[in-house]
Amino acid sequence: MDLRSLVPGAAGMAGVAADALVLVVAGSEPQALEPALAGLLAESVKAGDFEFKPGRSLYLHRPAGLKAPRLVLAAAADASPKAFKTALATALSGLKSLGVRHAAVALAAPAAADGVPALDDRHAEALAAAVADATYVYRHTKPSAPEGAKLQRVTLLCDKANASVVKRGLARGQGIADGVTLARECANRPGNFCTPTFLAEQAQALGAQYGFKIEVLGRKEVEKLGMGAFIGVAQGSEEPLRFIVLRYEGAPRTSAPLVLVGKGITFDSGGISIKPAAEMDEMKYDMGGAASVLGTFKALGEIKPKVNVVGLIAACENLPSGRATKPGDVLRSMSGQTIEVLNTDAEGRLVLCDALTYAERFKPAAVVDIATLTGACVIALGAQRSGLFSPDEELAARLLQAGEAALDPAWRMPMDDEYDEALKSNFADVANVGPRGGGAITAAMFLKRFTKAYRWAHLDIAGTAWKGGAAKGATGRPVPLLTHFVLAHAR
Ligand code: BES
Ligand code: MN
Ligand code: ZN
User: Fold this and answer.
1) Is 301 within a domain?
2) For the chain, which end, N or C, has fewer CB atoms within 10 Å of the first or last residue's CB respectively?
3) CB under 6 Å to ligand 1: residues?
4) Is the sign of the CA dihedral 63, 65, 71, 76 positive or negative?
5) What is the model's pTM?
6) Is residue 310 part of a domain?
7) Which residue out of 184, 189, 298, 349 is catalytically annotated?
8) Residue 185: inside a domain, yes or no?
């Protein structure tokens, strides 16, 4: 996608040459709108065709006084980046079936008291996200999928005063959108395409494109490291496991890295504690955490911030077989702690705990793991906010802030010590599950036992990485949150 910013010439927005002009109207009293547009807007409202209500949009063909042959009005609740993005999504979905190749977008906002233009880098970033979302089509195993939008270029109209911040926002937004698209593409691919080996190949490809250092460990190396928990999950499957290390070096060696750890279960059947058949197909996205690590690295490759980041991905399948781990089996983790596997379907925490121990060697500034970890988190928070768990107030605040800034929000969940009692075992140092209640929290408490050496947070993305229903598929979340978190650390 070709994203640009443009300061309109003497003829104003009316003179902008594009196949369509999209005017996002924030609130009900847009100020300083040029006469042609103000007239069209007033007429549309008077005719009862347009209302200043979020969700409303109107298409006008050959609008009088405009160079562009199409005008789309889209109402936004206010001039916030979030409302701008929502209104744009509506407008762009309307353009999808049309012949529009080049759209110009403008924001009509109420007058700001301080005279600062309403549009800034956050709007530009929101635009990049909305455009990428509207134009992504999954085709890899569905070549017959209908062509997406013909849209090839989007120009964001701005003033001289905000042109440079808008430009910066577009670049950042495009980088993040590229990362989101990669994460979606990986998570949408079926388990027989997106295997642990495939994830490793994706990492290698990113390495080749952007100069990241990539290491891929197989069964033998992982055994040598003593990753008994990870192997305990992988051993039920014929598909070889992969432990993937990515290194982005944007700062001097002396700068401690952030470490991102992704759960990479390329299919989760539950293992011997097998899942019910309904919707089991969706468990191909149980590598959504891994996908978000790859996507964030893609964004880093594009944006190139001055920071060091390590990505770790523990990838395997969770299947039942004659060699699979059984309920009651005890595994020895890389940390030395033994784990009683009471339920083989709580496999994410088993692969993550060894990856978290591996992370110690990087002497990290902080470690964040990302995992489609529990159905309980879906029940608690639904699809709107990712679950954030951390004993570290400051780190938690930074991640929450990154989520708000990225329009990819999270919600902090409790981690009182008392929750840990649910994980007591008579046969090992820890059990891999507790009772049903508070399932997302006990999962986080389990992980916490492996994070003593550094500052740590956990994101449960079971509800946010995937959309059900008619638009079923991967969302690419939380790549925007993670990228913002890393960028803020670079500053
Ligand atoms: N991958 C699942 C969690 C999940 C559920 C992700 C629904 C997305 C949507 C995870 O491995 C799992 O099976 N968790 C169990 C844990 C339980 C056995 C303690 C769960 O949530 O039921
Ligand atoms: Mn599971
Ligand atoms: Zn799982």
Assistant:
1) yes
2) C
3) 268, 286, 343, 345-348, 372-376, 378, 433, 439, 462
4) negative
5) 0.98
6) yes
7) 349
8) no
